[in-house]
Amino acid sequence: MSVPDIDFGIYRTHEELHGVMKRLADAFPGFTELYSIGRSLQGRDLWTMEITNKGTGPADEKPGLWIDGNTHSSEVTGSAVCLLTIGHLLRKYGEDELVTDLLDNTAIYILPRVNPDGAEIFLTQPYHRTGGGVPNPDFVDGEGHYEEDVDGDGVIVYMRMEDPDGDWKVSSKDPRLMLKRKPEDTDADGPFYKVLREGKFLKYKPGKEITMAPKRFIGGTNRNYPAYWAPGGLPLGGAGPFPLWEREPRAIADFWADHPNLSGIHTFHTSGGLILRESATRTDDWFIHQGLEADIAVYKVLADIGKEATGYPAISIYDDFTFEDDRPFRRGCATSFFYEHLGAFVFSVELWDWPRLLGFGGFMDRGGVDFSYSNLSEDDQLMEFKWIDENYPEGFVNWHNYYHPQLGPVEIGGINTKYTRRNAPPGKWLEEEARKCMMFALRHAAMLPRLRIAEAVVTKVANTVYKVEAQVRNTGFMPTYVTQMGVKVKVSKPVIASLELPKGAELVMGHENVDLGHLDGRSAKLLKPRVVGGEVIDKTRRNVEWVVKTETTDPVEVALQVRCLRAGTDRTTLVLF
User: What is the CATH number of the domain that holds 561?
Assistant: First the structure.
């Protein structure tokens, strides 16, 4: 079975992305379902691919993992990872042991573009800050500077204007580079410049202090989920008037409500080259204080797998990815919602580590959240220019003269950050980035719980009376409840063993549906095992039995089923004779 000829190293518009997904779905009907889980404000479908081997059972009877990308409109590398993951799963079934196992035993749900309206603007127009693509009603009546493609070349970069009071000057080593003016610089060290993002001004008045105009677009902020939601404008973006106000997070939340087999999520963002795990609002000690020791232990195991697969550090959002004054504002985040409300292990992967390619070290090595391009030395900034020249020349627009309709003579040029600092350049860099990050998600999926009937026997205890015994096992790494948080918030349901009898048979002992509680996975060994009387208790399995009486001495067939929403369903038939 071969995948259609698809280039996974390019960025695609919404229509193009859907076209590729449909081609893949049509080519592999036994493994895919392509459907929309909702629509954006502008009417774009949230196309989602469900992937599993239908021959081994329906998706909703298997443990499920959710993968999405492009939550923020400008972070389009995430869509490329999702699309490559779809292609890899379908192409490698029957060839790759991991892929074959996953499709036979789990269900993968992939939404490549969470924010189609904002991404469409980002991909087809020059704007960098496109939010959720929702026009901001405050923009038109606002005032101040806003980004705009002034010279009409399809790219928004920077403007520089000579000004004796300016705080920038041209590098003597490369005239393309602008450096911050030194405190001791005199007029003789000039000329000096003011530097602004390429753009225009609302309610422009010459000589007036420069202020920022209201955002042109709003929404798409990842602050609209219910966990710790708070109203109002926050430093990291508006939260909307109420939780799940934006249609995209509302559609995702509804989908999870309708698919209780889901218990893990990978969401792909940019940039920085790191893997973010919970908690977004508290230190790691919080897990221990809340009785969630097993959760943080599994989180760290998964994080190590992610680090191995990607080379990126895996860090706590609160401890390592949050400015001190930002911590009170980590509200309405997807990560908190999926873990604390839905009991799922969630990872937010910040794709594309351009600074490391330039030689500045990994995220933590170069200063973590305190790293800033503006603090780089002149030689370090020239390394950035060198990388662009050698790898993606389109990433720099040479300075050129232009008569600005409001400012008069200016020069326009500089780094186009869309596909340099923000996203991987199209081509080999994009596909390589997608491939390594994809594997982390797939290895996570392989660690989901798996419910199995390990043994099932029938013993005749009297004429037409039989004892049915079964041992039920969780053969997966994670417990059947997946997270202790899932148990705490009552979204993780127990294992149920059922015996279905034909007409003419009745239960003498036992119940048709038996609640077996929760089964541990191999992850239980991460903590000290429970020991009773010197013997280690294995809670990965449970025994169940029934006594059945039939009306005939002829063989009678009964159906045994075990099911758990997050660990799957297994069945077998037994003959009483």
Answer: 2.60.40.10
Number of domains forming the structure of the chain: 3
User: Do the beta carbons of residue 267 and residue 69 sit within 8 Å?
Assistant: yes
Q: Are residues 464 and 513 in the same domain?
A: yes
Asked if the model's pLDDT at residue 502 lies above 70, the reply is yes
Q: List the domain range (segments joined by +) for residue 191.
A: 137-214+374-419
Q: For residue 371, is it left (φ>0), alpha (ψ between -120 and 50) or beta?
A: beta
Least confident of 366-370, 429-433, 528-532: 528-532
Are 486 and 530 within one domain?
Answer: yes
What's the one-letter identity of residue 487? V
pTM over the 0.90 mark = yes
Q: What is the mean pLDDT of residues 533-556?
A: 90
Q: Which two tokens stand for residue 323?
A: 């400015």
Q: 328: which 2 tokens?
A: 């009170």
Task: Judge whether residue 234 has pLDDT over 50.
Answer: no
| Count of beta carbons in the 10 Å neighbourhood of residue 283 | 12
Asked whether residue 257 is assigned to any structural domain, the reply reads no
Contact 261, 568 (CB under 8 A): yes
At 340-375, the pLDDT tens digits run 999 999 999 999 999 999 999 999 999 888 888 888
Q: Are residues 159 and 292 in the same domain?
A: no
How many Cβ atoms are within 10 Å of 504's Cβ, its own excluded? 12
Examine the domain organization and report whether 175 and 241 are in the same domain: no
